[in-house]
Structure formats: structure tokens, C-alpha cells
Amino acid sequence: MSVPLISDLSDDPLPGIFLQIIGGVDISFFPYLLLVLTLLLFSAVVSGSEIALFALSPSDKKQLENSNNNNHSVILALLSRPKRLLATILIANNLINIGIVVLSTFIFNEFLSSGLSEFVAFFVEVVIITLLILFFGEIIPKVYANREPLKVSERVARLINILMMLFLPVSRLLIYLTNLVEKLIKPEKNSISVDDLSHALELTTESIENKEDKKILEGIVNFGNTDVSEIMKARVQVSAIDLETTYDELLQVVLEKGYSRIPVYRETFDKVEGVLYVKDLIPHVNVKNFKWQTLIRPPFFVPENKKIDNLLKDFQEKRIHMAVVVDEYGGTSGIVTLEDVIEEIVGEITDEFDEEEVIYSKIDDHNYIFEGKILLKDLYKILDISGEFFDAEKGEAETLAGFLLEKMGRIPLKNEKLQFKHYKFVVESSDKRKIKQVKLTIETPKEEVEV
Q1: DSSP notation for 207-226
Q2: Same domain, 414 and 371
Q3: Whether residue 123 is found in the same domain as residue 255
Q4: pLDDT by residue for the chain (451 residues), tens digit each?
Q5: Are residues 143 and 173 both part of a single domain?
Q6: Is residue 123 part of a domain?
Q7: Taking the model in full, what pTM does it have?
């Protein structure tokens, strides 16, 4: 086999280009070449950091929050200012890439361009430099960073933090200009409140033939404006078990209550340790003295004022059906389930295991007997009223009993009366701790109640 001569290779397009470039190279250009390679490395680091930091999963962030590592604290600080972080990365990356292009052009024109054709010069200055930046400065680092976001974030965090401080004035200007442009081009949106939607729904009542459809529409309208405390099951109504309960006692509770999930507490219900899924007990039903505490799953706590539309998203993301509701002091207020949330839209959901709980009875069109624990929202639905009179004076009360306590300032005795607007309340049953039953009389026809 004959070895091709240089003169023969120079006739081929691609090898010929490189032979033209390296012929008669001046070694004084190597420091500049080293600088270009260094900038290319920085470009790769900055490009990879963008993908790594913004690709961290919720579990990664949780790991960072629970860590005492100073580097992890730097990452969390960076992520707390996403706009400034992104602006810094973009500024740094563009400056580095510009530097690569300028230096490469200088090296080529100063040391390598003599005797080269225009095509070769164009090919080197545009095509090769662009491919180098894209491949080594963008594609490779971003692919790697997407696979190992936490590892890359840990390595680049301090560098990016330094760049954020260095480019602070420029990034602030960039963010300001971006916000200004957003305001100028942002389309105007009609601001419609929940009250406006409710009023519109009332106006179209006659066109909605199915009352169930109307209730569902009303539930959707008010869905994002409802707090967890309005739909939760209060702690006095919750069936829970102590962590020290024996296995035999636990099985008895499970059989009696019929619930699929049971909160587990230590000493008091204010110290909920977790939730027991009854299905987890099935493989161990015949085991004597089984240590059921090992099956407890971590509880999910939510505040009383959390909106139920956000709670529904949490349930979907975490794939759970129950949350423990806590008050501002950390005490347990009750529990809320996925079923409670869905019922706010579609109405009451019952199955073959639900006991039919009578919370009211209708005597006639103007007289009702209500359980004291009935929620005011349910009372409004039963009476088919908006409830604005009650809401204006209910204070923090969510139940009928709570409303009467708010108005009377004490627990009323049996047969005590309260007149409120067009409604007369008579306490049918009570004890020292709570109001059990209340008779409600509407003293004018329902059509005139809201006039």
C-alpha cells in the first residue's frame, strides 16, 4: 500500500484545509490558544450550571434543606432568587462566548491566515469555532448536568455565587428591563372576582335545568376560595389510635370503625406520629402480637387556612388521601381527606360502608331541626341562601353551634332562643360542653329572606 504524499492530501478539501492552517505555525500563538481553551471550559461550566440548578427535583431540594453543608446553603440561596440567577448565567455565558469568538478570530488572523483562501478563512472563523462552542460549551455539559444535577450544582455553586455578586449591577438592569417589557406587552386581563362569578351564576339559574349541575358549578366557582378549616373533620369527630395500643385492640378498632386510614398519635392527638393504612395490616392479620407500629407512614400536615385547591394539588403530587390539619400553635385541629375536597365540587359522596348520618330534618318549608355540628356552608345549601348575613357576623365560627356561641357569648341552656334577622333559633339539646341540636324557624318565606 502506498502512503499518500502531502501534496496528494492537499488536493482533498478537508485535510487540505488543516494542512494549510498548520503549515508554518508560529508557536507564539499557543498562550492565546490556551486562553481560548480556558474560556471554553468556563463556558461549559456556566452552561451546565444553568441546567443543573434549575433541574433539581423537590426531593433534591428537600435533601439540601435538611443538610448542614455550607455548599448546600449556597445552592438554596441561589435558587431563592431565580430571576437574578438566570440573568447572571446568561450574562456570563454570553460574555465568555464573545471572548472565545474574538480571541479565535485574533489568533487566526494574526498567526494562521497567511496564504489561505477566503473559503478556508470563512470555514475556520465561522463553522469550526461555532461547532466547538456548541459541542464543548453547550451540548456536552448540559447533557451531563441534566443527568447529575445535584452533583454539578454542588461543584458550581460557589463560582456562580461569585458571578452573581460580580454581575449584580448588570443583572439588576436586565431584570428591570425584562419586567418593563413584560408590562408593556402583557395583554390586559379582565379581573373577575368570585363574587362576580357567583352573581353571574345566579342570573343564569333559569337556564340550568339540572340542579345538580348548578351545585357543581357553584362548587367550582368557590373552590379556590375555601379554607381547609371549612371542610375538615374536627378532632372530636376523628377516630385515632394511640401508639401504645396493642395489636388485638387495634384490630378491634379497625373492625368497628371501618376506615381505610387511621391517624396514630403519641399520648395526645396534638402529637400525631403518622397514619396507618389498614391495607398494610392484611398480610399480618394472623400474626400474634405483631408490631404494627412499623407500618406507620409519615403524616402530611397542613395549616387551617390553606386553600383546598392547593391542597388538591398536594394530594395529587404526593399521592396521598389524608392530611392532618394543625392550628397556628401546632396543635391538631382535625383531619381532611381527598373525599372531603372532591365533595366541595360534586356534593356528598357515600359508599356502602358509610353510615347515613342525619344532620338535619325538615319539618316544613319554614322549620328545621339541625345538629349543632353542621357546617354553616351546608346550612346555606339546605336553606338555599347565600349566607352573607351569617358570614358578616360569624367571626371565626364554621358550624351552627359555633355561630350561636359567637352571638350569645356562652353555651346556651335548653330552650334558650336567639333571634337573628329573619331566623329564630331555639336550642333543643345542649350540655355543659356543646350545643347538640337547634330548631331553626324562618319567619318569612324563603323568597324574601335575602331581599
Answers
A1: G---HHHHHHHHHHHHHTT-
A2: yes
A3: no
A4: 444 444 444 444 444 444 444 444 556 667 777 888 888 888 888 888 888 888 888 778 888 888 888 888 888 888 888 888 888 888 888 888 888 888 887 777 776 666 566 677 677 777 788 888 888 888 888 888 888 888 888 888 898 889 888 988 888 888 888 888 877 776 555 555 555 555 555 555 554 455 555 565 665 656 667 788 888 888 888 889 999 889 888 888 888 888 888 999 988 888 899 999 988 888 888 888 889 989 999 999 999 888 888 888 888 888 888 999 998 878 888 899 888 888 776 666 555 455 545 577 888 888 999 988 888 888 888 888 878 888 888 877 888 888 888 888 888 888 888 888 888 999 988 877 788 889 999 886 544 444 3
A5: yes
A6: yes
A7: 0.42
Is 355 inside a domain boundary?
Answer: no
Asked if residue 409 and residue 323 are part of one domain, the reply reads: no
CA dihedral 393, 395, 400, 401 (to 10 degrees): -120
Q: Are residues 206 and 232 in the same domain?
A: no
Domain count, the chain: 4
Sheet holding 322-326, edge to edge: 233-234, 332-337, 322-326, 301-303
Q: Name the domain boundary from 184, 208, 240.
A: 184
Domain of residue 212: give its range: 191-223
219/240 same-domain check: no
At 63, the amino acid letter reads Q
CB-based burial of residue 245 (10 Å sphere; 0-12 exposed, 13-18 middle, 19+ buried)?
middle
